[in-house]
Structure formats: C-alpha cells, structure tokens
C-alpha cells in the first residue's frame, strides 16, 4: 500500500501546474455542495411556512427553487469544465514525456517488447491515468464536499442521531478495501490484454500482403477475436466487482438510515423538534446515500488509474541508453576492435574475442553464413548494443568516451531492411540531422545513388509522399533512397549491411558505381553475399560464430583454399 501511496503522490505532482484552475474546480463543486444542503433547508422553510400559514414566505418558494437549480447548474458546469481542462492537459503532458522516453530507450527494449504493447502503453494506459488523477479527484471533491456539508448539517441538527452513521463507516471501509484489491488485479490484466489486441492489429496491418497471399484472414480474425475476448472478460469481471461493491455499501447505509428513522420517530429522542426540522433532517440523511455511492464507485476509477500509473511510471523509470561520452571529435575513420565480445542475455555469444584493425579510408568486407555475427558487429559501432568485453577504438578514442549523438552523426548506415517514413521523397533523403540540406545537395545525393531519374518520374518529383513504409516504391527504389540518404550524410564511416540484396542486376550495377563514388575517402564496412561488392575490398574478413576465421584480400583468400574459397564456390548464396 505504501508503494501505491508513493505512486499516487507522484501522479498528483503532475497536477501542480494546474493549481489555479483547481481553485475554480473547488469553487464550482463548493457551490454545488451548498445547493444540496440547501434542499433540506428549503423543505424546512416550506413546511414551517405551511404550518404557520405564512403566505408571504410561500410566495418566495418558486423563485428559491429556480435560484437553487441555477446555482447547482453553474457549480456543476464550473467544476466539470475545469476538471476536464486539467484532465486533458495531464494526458497531453504525460504522453509527451512517455514518447520522449521511448525515443531514448536502448534498442534492446524494442527487441523485448512488441510494438503493439508499446503503443498500448502510450495510447491506452496514459488515457487511464486520468481515471486515477483528475476524474477520481473530481468525484472525491464534488461528492466529498456534499457528504461533508450534509454530515455537518446533520450533526448541527442532532448530533446523537448522526453518530449512528459513523458506526457503519468501518464496515464500508472494509468492503471498499476488498473490492480495491480485486479491481487492481483485473485492471492490470485489462491493460495487458489491450496490448495483445493492439499487437494483433499491428501485425496484420504490417503483414497484410502475407495475410492476403496465404489466405490467412480467418486465422487473423480468430487471433483478434481471442485477444479481444480476453480483454472483454477481464473488463466484465471489473464491472461485476464494482456493481457488487456499490449495492453492498448502499445496503449498509440503508441499515444505518433505518436505525436513524426508527430512533427519530421516538418522541423522547427528538423532543420538541418542529415538523420542518424533522423532514429536513430525514431529507438530508436520505441525500447522503447518493454521494456515498459515488465515493465508493470512484474506487474502480482509482484502481484502473493506479494500475496504469504503475505501468507508465515503470516505463519512465527505465534506464535510458547510456551516454557517458563527453568527447566530440571529428572522426577520420580508423577503427580498432580489441578482443571484443558481445553476449545476449548472459548466454548467447554473438561476438567472441574479435580483434581487427581498420585503417581510415579502407573498405572492409565482412562475409560468412547467416548468424555469423556480422550485423551484431556493426551494431556495436553505432552502440545499438553495448560491448560485453574488450574495447572498440575510433581514431584511438574508446567508443564509450565519444558523445552518442556525435558518434552516430558520423556513421552512415544502409540496412538490408530499408526504413522509410510516410513523408515526401525529399524529407526521407534529408532526414533528421540532414533536414537543412539544400535542394541541390539532395538532388546530388539522389543522382549519386542513381535515384534521381525514377524520382523525377513520380507525380510530384521530390515532393511526392511515398506512403507508409514507402510501399508506393519498389524494393530497389526504396533501397536507392536509403543509399541517397547515406550519401547525403557524408559521414567518415559508411556501413552497408546487405545493401544491394534487394536490387536487380541493372540497379546493382549502377549502385555499385554509386558506392565506388561514396566509398572514396571514407572507411566502409560492407556486409554482403554478392561477389561484386566484395572482390574489390581492401580486406575481406570471414566470420563464423562471432569469430574471425580468415582475413586477407580476395586473391590471397582464394589461394588459401579455406572457408572463403568454399563460400566463393557456392557463390555466397548460402
């Protein structure tokens, strides 16, 4: 419970900037609470006027009712509107914070969590937070003030009778506590199943071509049905708990009320109370049931929001990508791997005892079967993964001492899986740090990547939107836009990871020429299966199981009749 209290305090701390608006909320709900108590006073006024036969007082009665309803409406509007302002602003600011955090989390987080669960956190869970903060505070303030007002009036009218209500408070507290535990558990399950629903949707949207070509629609519909059904079941269980809890609390309240009425009807208890006072007392006591029901119902909101708060704060407290480097050197491109090892989850050895010296401006080809550790090695160079042992030096500087943004801005990567954004061609080439590039620079990069001609054939040229994931383009065209992006970056280190695998022979021929241009005066690391990319490399490194098996030039390695020779014979098609 202590943990809960800390989380709740942290959540409430987000409301601090809105304390000025909160005053209007208090004022609005204060006016509303006053009208509730006034109902009882108004009844006393009428009955006393009827008994006294005072026509003048009775004439005021219609005007008083209109005034009462007017102020109640005004109070509810003020309270409700300003609560909504706080609530929407809260979602806005926490969502910004969660998104900023997601961008700073290490790559491993994205490997461990599906995109469906990640988006559920930022969309659904953050929305649920308002249930615990502003929504439940609204009910607590609104109905809390009404309850206090009515209890105050009851104590003032007859404190002995009113003590009967306090006797049942521990029973109500016990019921609410039992329901809370169950609702918290179910809330967590609802959030997780929401992530599953999201995950299924994203998979089938991203893989719609496979779904259609393998006639998997029924299968996907079934998966969606199952995860939605789980979500529905958990949600309905919460409703059951809430709807059982509320009547039980009402029942306990009714017992207390019946005792009060029974006692109140004893003449010795009320003594010389007027009819008006008696009716007003019973009315005020009757009015208590509604706000107390609301206060017990708020528990469901609170538990939903608290479960969401735990999950959102857990994400916000995750360790970010370590960026301890302070140096911002202008790199020339010399790379030294010194007994480097990379271990996944403490067990799988992706790279083992890897040592290699690459001179600035050299072209090095990494070859080997799938799973030999080639991609893991280049991921270490941009620190998508952290070295488990050994060290990497760039121009003699340990990689960890270089500022992360400085390091990444000086390494250009073209991956086998091209990532393009749902923006224009120009925005995809001049992306991120390159967004201020001139049109001339963008066109020069596109020409160098042999992309300019097909871009000019598009409906709006460089201003053509290319759709989600660039699906409006062919594989070879997407690849060339990614290469243009890397050429425009003009970094001292260029990494080509299977960069020509999606191309036909003609495109590859042109891009090979483009690469020859791009490779001038910069260190290039090429991971490839195609022979043409490899034969001209200054150094070929053959890898297997994360280790270097052979290294040398194309001619030297062929002469050795070893692993490279065998790969060469099979034409790298493995």
Enumerate the spans where pLDDT stays under 50 for 5 or more consecutive residues. Answer: none
- Average per-residue pLDDT, rounded, comes to 84
The portion of residues assigned to helices is 55-70%
Structural class: alpha/beta
Walkthrough of the structure:
There is one protein chain. The protein is α/β, with parallel strands linked by helices and 574 residues long. The longest helix is centred in the first third of the chain and has 50 residues, at 55-104. It starts with a helix and ends in a 5-residue tail after the last helix. The mean pLDDT is 84. It contains 22 helices and ten strands. It has a six-stranded mixed β-sheet, with helices on both faces. A hairpin with a 2-residue loop joins strand 9 (539-544) and strand 10.
Give a brief outline of the structure.
This protein has helices at 2-13, 19-52, 55-104, 107-112, 115-157, 159-167, 169-206, 208-213, 217-264, 267-270, 275-287, 289-316, 374-381, 404-408, 425-429, 439-448, 452-457, 475-489, 505-518, 531-535, 554-560, 563-569, and strands at residues 335-344, 348-358, 363-367, 389-394, 397-398, 411-414, 493-497, 523-527, 539-544, 547-552. With 574 residues, it is α/β, with parallel strands linked by helices. The protein starts with a helix and ends in a 5-residue tail after the last helix.
């Amino acid at each position: 419970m202590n943990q809960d209290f800390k989380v709740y305090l942290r959540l409430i701390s987000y409301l601090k900037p809105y304390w000025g608006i909160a005053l209007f909320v208090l004022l609005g709900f204060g006016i509303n609470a006053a009208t509730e108590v006034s109902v009882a006073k108004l009844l006393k006024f009428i009955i006393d006027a009827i008994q006294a036969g005072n026509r003048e007082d009775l004439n005021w009665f219609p005007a008083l009712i209109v005034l009462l309803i007017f102020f109640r409406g005004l109070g509810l509007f003020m309270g409700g509107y300003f609560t909504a302002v706080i609530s929407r602003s809260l979602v806005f600011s926490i969502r910004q914070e969660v998104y900023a955090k997601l961008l700073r989390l290490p790559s491993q987080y994205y490997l461990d969590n599906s995109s469906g669960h990640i988006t559920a956190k930022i969309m659904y869970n953050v929305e649920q937070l308002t249930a615990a903060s502003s929504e439940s505070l609204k009910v607590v303030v609104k109905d809390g003030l009404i309850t206090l007002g009515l209890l105050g009036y009851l104590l003032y009218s007859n404190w002995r009778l009113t003590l009967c209500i306090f006797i049942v408070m521990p029973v109500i507290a016990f019921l609410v506590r039992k329901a809370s535990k169950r609702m918290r558990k179910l809330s967590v399950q609802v959030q997780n199943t929401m992530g599953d629903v999201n995950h299924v949707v994203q998979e089938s949207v991203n893989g719609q071509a496979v779904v259609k070509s393998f006639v998997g629609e029924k299968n996907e519909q079934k998966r969606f049905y199952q995860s939605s059904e789980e979500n529905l079941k958990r949600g309905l269980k919460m409703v059951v708990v809430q709807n059982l809890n509320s009547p039980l609390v009402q029942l306990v309240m009714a017992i207390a009320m019946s005792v009060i009425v029974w006692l109140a009807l004893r003449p010795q208890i009320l003594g010389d109370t007027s009819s008006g006072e008696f009716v007003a007392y019973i009315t005020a006591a009757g009015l208590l049931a509604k706000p107390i029901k609301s206060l017990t119902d708020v528990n469901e909101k609170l538990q939903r929001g608290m479960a969401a708060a735990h999950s959102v704060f857990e994400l916000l407290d995750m360790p970010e990508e370590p960026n301890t480097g302070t140096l911002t050197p202008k790199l020339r491109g010399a790379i030294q791997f010194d007994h480097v090892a990379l271990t996944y989850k403490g067990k799988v050895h992706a790279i083992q005892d890897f040592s290699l010296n690459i001179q600035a401006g050299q072209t090095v080809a990494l070859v080997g079967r799938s799973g030999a550790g080639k991609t893991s090695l280049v991921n270490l160079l941009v620190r998508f993964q952290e070295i488990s042992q050994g060290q990497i030096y760039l121009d003699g500087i340990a990689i960890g001492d270089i500022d992360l943004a400085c390091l990444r801005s000086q390494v250009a990567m073209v991956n086998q899986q091209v990532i393009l954004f749902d923006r224009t061609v120009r925005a995809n080439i001049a992306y991120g740090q390159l967004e201020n590039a001139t049109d001339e620079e963008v066109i020069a990069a596109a020409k160098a990547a042999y992309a300019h001609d097909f871009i000019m054939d598009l409906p709006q040229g460089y201003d053509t939107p290319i759709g989600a994931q660039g699906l409006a383009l062919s594989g070879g065209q997407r690849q060339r836009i990614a290469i243009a992006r890397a050429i425009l970056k003009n970094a001292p280190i260029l990494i080509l990871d299977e960069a020509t695998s999606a191309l036909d022979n003609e495109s590859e021929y042109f891009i090979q020429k483009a690469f020859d241009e791009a490779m001038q005066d910069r260190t290039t690391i090429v991971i490839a299966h195609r022979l043409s990319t490899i034969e001209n490399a200054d150094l070929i490194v053959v890898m297997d199981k994360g280790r270097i098996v052979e290294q040398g030039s194309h001619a030297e390695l062929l002469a050795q009749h070893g692993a490279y020779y065998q790969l060469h014979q099979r034409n790298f098609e493995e």
